[in-house]
Each structure stands twice: as structure tokens, then as C-alpha cells.
Amino acid sequence: MEEDDFFGDGSSADEAPPNNRSGARQVALQALYWEASQSGKAEDALGELCSRFKLSSGVRAFAGTLVDCVHAHGDDIDHLIAETSTRWSPERIARIDRLILRMGLAEMLHLEDVPARVAIDEAVDLARAFSTDKSYAFVNGILDSAAKHRALRI
Fold first, then answer.
1. Considering the entire predicted model, what is its pTM?
2. What is the pLDDT of residue 13?
3. How far are the Cα atoms of 67, 98, 110, 124, 139 from residue 136, in angstroms, in the given order?
4. How far apart are CA 101 and CA 132, in angstroms?
5. Fewest Cβ atoms closer than 10 Å to its Cβ: which of 15, 41, 61, 77?
């Protein structure tokens, strides 16, 4: 694993994320992206990132829960993405956006202590920070549609 290039785009991964749940989401996203790009294990990347940034045990645990949840419910989540992205086939969705959607849906559907609105807002923030200028609107639209499709309160 390249220490300075988790996203494979030349960007630096040296700046520590905040030591809170938002930071845990950033680290989980980096670990999932590394796994999708390098065929390594997200858990290994997660451990390395949490150690490098000296994240608290609570942040480490939440990031691990997100990664585990995405892995455990991937098929259901991908099916829901396909159902709600009516104009885009899942294969055409950028890798980073797919991962952000998977994390957001994992939180919305499987983590009871995260309100759907919070999961959507956090996913939109990740898209603003790590994807293209228009991705945040796409992520917001898919997650809102999925929440309505599953009758979640937002």
C-alpha cells in the first residue's frame, strides 16, 4: 500500500481526519477505496490508517463497523443502488461515488444509532470532499430516493 496515495490519484493521505465519526467515515472510505483499487483487505488499510493518525478507539471502532457493514450487506446495498439509480447503471457510477453510496446506505439501513438524514448529509460531505463537483448532488439524489424506497424517515 502506497503511504501517500490511498486514492490512486496522487493526492496525499497525510492529513489526519478529525477524531470523530466524520473522520471515521473518511478513514473507512479510504480503506474501502484501497481495497477496491488494490485488491487488498480494507481491514488492513483501516488498521494502518487508524494507527498512523492516532485515532481514538471509538473512531477506530466506528470505522470498522462501517467497513464490516458494507461487506456484510453489499449485495442488498448494490441491488438498492441499481433500483434507485434509474439513469445510471451501477457499472457507470464512479468507484468513489459507489463506495460513498454503499457506506451511506449501510448506515441508513443497518446502523440503528445513525438517523437517515445524518447518513445522507455525511455521504454528501464525503462526495464534496473526495469526488467531482457534481457528485454530491448525485449521491444526495440516490440516497434520498433509497430512503423513500425503504420508507425511512428523513
1. 0.89
2. 56
3. 21, 12, 22, 5, 5
4. 14
5. 15
